[in-house]
UniProtKB/TrEMBL annotation, chain A:
It is a peripheral membrane protein. This is V-type proton ATPase subunit F. It comes from Penicillium argentinense. It is found in: Vacuole membrane. Pfam families: ATP-synt_F.
Automatic annotation (TrEMBL), chain B:
It is found in: Vacuole membrane. It is a peripheral membrane protein. NCBIfam families: V_ATPase_subD. GO terms for biological process: vacuolar acidification. InterPro entries: V_ATPase_D. Subunit of the V1 complex of vacuolar(H+)-ATPase (V-ATPase), a multisubunit enzyme composed of a peripheral complex (V1) that hydrolyzes ATP and a membrane integral complex (V0) that translocates protons. V-ATPase is responsible for acidifying and maintaining the pH of intracellular compartments. Belongs to the V-ATPase D subunit family. Residues 237-250 have a biased composition (Polar residues). This is V-type proton ATPase subunit D. The lineage of its organism: Eukaryota, Fungi, Dikarya, Ascomycota, Pezizomycotina. One of its GO terms (molecular function) is proton-transporting ATPase activity, rotational mechanism. It comes from the Eukaryota. Keywords: Hydrogen ion transport, Ion transport, Membrane, Transport, Vacuole.
Length: 123, 266
């Protein structure tokens, strides 16, 4: 069960997305860089040149290693590239949220949580 | 079915029968309570899934509007501001804090967004031109992120509730299909054993009383026979000689005392 300690100090949002999504979300003020010794950004800009392994690594670090992230936002078309990791990550914290991007409309059928919702109600 | 679940390893005594009855009662109360809890959670769960569905659709719309306002910005600024913004992001202004909500004993976290005052990384962004658009864009995105945070807390609640409902249902089923039948089985077993003991005891008592009766009857018959013999003898002697009757009587009194004296040494 999720005890208070596991989410008490989670206060940031992280984002993995294309440039426009990241820019917009940073404008909203979610961007955070940790203190210098090991400066870590809580956002990753993915373009066509970004390796899937790097997305994977960043996703793992946001979900497993960092304990200060409450919500991970990830563009749906990027989540598709690491679908396996997204689907196998079932912990309540941090919450992984698939968001639409500018040039990829949102498809509810691919969302890992909505898939579970559909499966539970047998639709 | 009831044979498959077995029974508790107890001795069939009255004390353990009482214990088992108390246990059965406890299991039934616990079962009904857990069932109610599961129903309450499921109700909540359905509500949350409905809200997730709605929020996902709302998110689609909100993100579209936000993307459009960003397009407005790049048009107004006349260039790419992405790099500049990524580099100037230092401290999060928009943060979340987790609250707890208690739904029938389950703590559901709820994220609540707040803005850290006095942090502004983008003070100089759009200083040249497009400042107004950037301001509007920031507001739009802030609203979008609020929607996302709301969705995230719904989703977290969904995952936790899913887990808890599974656990509760497993418990309900365990009580219903294992613990209650097993306890009932044990009670049945203890009862049958106690009945068996009762019957054995009853049979033993019957046997004892039968034996006593038989012994009594035998003793009675012996006495009767002896009396009859004596009576016959008396009758015979009475016809032949009356003096023997007087002789017989001292013999009978002999048994009480006089002959014993021969054994006494002192």
């Amino acid at each position: 069960m999720a005890s208070a300690a596991t989410y008490k100090d989670r206060q940031f949002l992280a984002v993995i997305g294309d440039e426009d999504s990241v820019t917009g979300l940073l404008l909203a003020g979610i961007g955070h860089v940790t203190n210098p010794p090991d400066a870590q950004r809580n956002f990753l800009v993915v373009d066509s040149k970004t390796e899937t392994s790097e997305i994977e690594r960043t996703f793992q670090s946001f979900t497993q290693e960092r304990k200060d992230i409450a919500v991970v936002l990830i563009n749906q078309h990027i989540a598709e590239r690491i679908r396996h990791s997204v689907d196998t990550f079932t912990d309540p914290f941090p919450a992984v949220l698939e968001i639409p991007s500018k040039d990829h409309p949102y498809d509810p059928e691919k969302d890992s949580v909505l898939k579970r919702v559909r499966r539970l109600f047998g639709e | 079915m009831s044979g498959a679940v077995g029974r508790e390893p107890v001795f069939p005594t009255r004390q353990s029968l009482g214990l088992m009855k108390a246990k059965l009662k406890g299991a039934e109360v616990g079962h009904s309570l857990l069932k109610r809890k599961s129903e309450a959670l499921t109700k909540r769960f359905r509500e949350i899934t409905r809200r997730i569905d709605e929020a996902k659709q709302k998110m689609g719309r909100v993100m579209q509007i936000a993307a459009f306002s960003l397009a407005e910005v790049s048009y107004a600024v006349g260039g790419d501001i992405g790099y500049q913004i990524q580099e100037s992001a230092k401290q999060a202004r928009f943060r979340v804090r987790a609250k707890q909500e208690n739904v029938s004993g389950v703590f559901l976290p709820q994220f609540e967004s707040y803005t850290e005052e006095g942090v502004n990384d983008f003070g100089l962004t759009g200083l040249g031109k497009g400042g107004q658009q950037i301001q509007r864009c920031r507001e739009t995105y802030a609203r979008a992120v609020e929607t996302l945070v709301e969705l995230a807390s719904l989703q977290t609640a969904f995952l936790i509730l899913d887990e808890v409902i599974k656990v509760v249902n497993r418990r309900v089923n365990a009580i219903e299909h294992v613990i209650i039948p097993r306890t009932e089985n044990t009670i049945k077993y203890i009862n049958s054993e106690l009945d068996e003991l009762d019957r054995e005891e009853f049979y033993r008592l019957k046997k004892v009383s039968n034996k006593k009766q038989r012994d009594n009857a035998a003793a009675d018959a012996e006495i009767l026979a002896a009396r009859q013999k004596a009576a016959e003898k008396e009758a015979q002697n009475g016809t032949a000689d009356t003096s023997t009757v007087t002789n017989n009587e001292p013999e009978a009194t002999d048994v009480l005392g006089e002959q014993e004296d021969n054994d006494v040494i002192f």
